[in-house]
Amino acid sequence: MPLFEHHVFVCQNSRPAGAPRRSCTADGNSELHTRLQQLVREAGLGNKVRINKAGCLNQCEHGPVMVVYPEAVWYGNVTSDDAKEIVQSHLVGGKPVERLRIADDCLNNPHCPHCG
Amino acid sequence: MPLFEHHVFVCQNSRPAGAPRRSCTADGNSELHTRLQQLVREAGLGNKVRINKAGCLNQCEHGPVMVVYPEAVWYGNVTSDDAKEIVQSHLVGGKPVERLRIADDCLNNPHCPHCG
C-alpha cells in the first residue's frame, strides 16, 4: 500500500537566462508548490497527500510541470492559479484535471506539436 | 501508461548542524543520486528510468531515503554503496531490495522502533 494516496512532485528547476530549454521556476522558488501545500492542508489531507519539491523532471518544453504518483499523471503549463482545481478535482476528488494533462505522446517527445 | 518504468526520487535535503531531524545529505549533494544516474545509463535504461532529485520526503528518521514510483517502494539508510544492488535488482530486474526497504509500519511513524 502506498504511503501517500497522492505524492505530488513539483519541478523547481531554474536555468540561466538564454538557456535552450524552459525553466519551471524563475529562481528555484515555486508559488505553485507553496499554494498546493496550503490547499492540501486546508483540505485536511496533510497525512494522505504530500506536495514535494523536485529537481528537473525533464519535460521542460511543457514547463512548469508536475507529476502525481502513484497514478503517474503529468501536468504541464501549470501556474499557481491552477492549484485549487488540481487539489479539489484530483487530490480530493480523484479526478485528474484533463485540460492540464500532458498528452502521453508529448511526454519525452521533443518533436511534439507543443515543442520547438 | 507511466512515462517511466521507474521514477526514482532521491532526497537531497540538508539541515543545519544540531537540527532535531536527520539530514539526507550533508550539503545538498548526493553521491547516491550521482551513482544511480551513472549506473542506470550504463545499464541502457536512460529512457525508461529517471533518477530524480527531490526535496524532503519527510521520512527523515530513516534517512538517507529514496522512493521508487509508480510502485511506491521506499528505501532507507541508503548509501552510494547500495546503488549497484538497487539498479541491478530493482530497476533492471524488477525485484526490490528487501534489506533496504522501510517497513510499511515505520513510514510516517515517529514511534517506530528505528526512530528516537
Q: What profile does the largest beta sheet of chain A have?
A: 4 strands, mixed
Average pLDDT over all residues of chain A: 93
How much helix is in the residues of chain A? 10-25%
End-to-end separation of chain A = 40 Å
Shape category of chain A: globular
Largest interface pair: A-B, 25 and 25 residues
Which range does the strand content of chain A fall in? 15-25%
Parts with pLDDT < 50 across at least 5 consecutive residues of chain A: none
| Strand line-up across the major sheet of chain A | 2-1-3-4
Walk me through the structure.
With 116 residues, chain A is of the alpha+beta class. In chain A, 19% of the residues lie in helices and 16% in strands. In chain A, strand 3 and strand 4 form a beta hairpin. At the A-B interface, strand 2 of A face strand 2 of B.
Describe how the helices and strands are arranged.
The structure is a homodimer of 116-residue chains.
Chain A: E1 6-11, H1 31-42, E2 49-54, E3 66-69, E4 73-75, H2 83-92
Parallel strand pairs in A: 1-2
Antiparallel strand pairs in A: 1-3, 3-4
Helix pairs in contact in A: 1-2
In short:
By secondary structure, chain A is an alpha+beta fold.
